Amino acid sequence: MPYLLAAEKDYEGLIILEALQDIQYLISVVYHNLNMISERDAAARRHHATMERREKLAVTVADEEVDTILDLVGKIGIALASRK
Questions:
Q1: What are the backbone angles phi and psi of residue 21, rounded to the nearest 5°?
Q2: What is the dihedral of CA 52, 34, 14, 80, to 10 degrees?
Q3: Which one, of 60, 47, 61, lies nearest residue 18 by Cα?
Q4: Which of 15, 27, 37, 73 could disulfide-link to 43, CB 3.0 to 4.6 Å?
Q5: Would you kindly state where each structural domain of the chain is located, as residue ranges?
Q6: Angle CA(13)–CA(16)–CA(21) in degrees, nearest 5?
């Protein structure tokens, strides 16, 4: 359990919301299996809050021009990283 909680804090600090949401779900499942109801409920609330946060960000970044620019930047980065 300490490693799962550490991973949750790390993902929160790095703002990797998809992985954060996944680890929060896993934490709630583990707490459920251990019959730790209050901890499970707290993890489920954090999971729900992260889900809402991701949805707000998805709406914010739904600009097609920004997506095109970010795709181009990603392709340039891949090309630079793969050259020898």
A1: -65, -40
A2: -100
A3: 47
A4: 27
A5: 2-82
A6: 105
Which pLDDT score, from 0 to 100, does residue 62 have?
61
The pair of three-digit structure tokens given for residue 74, joined into one six-digit string? 């990603």
Output 51-56 pairs: Cβ under 8 A, ≥24 positions apart.
Answer: 51/21, 53/17, 54/17, 54/18, 54/21
- Residues 27/41, Cβ–Cβ less than 8 Å: no
User: Contact at 8 Å (CB) between 54 and 17?
Assistant: yes
| pLDDT tens by residue, 52-83 | 998 888 766 567 787 888 889 999 988 888 87
Residue found under tokens 């954090």: 46
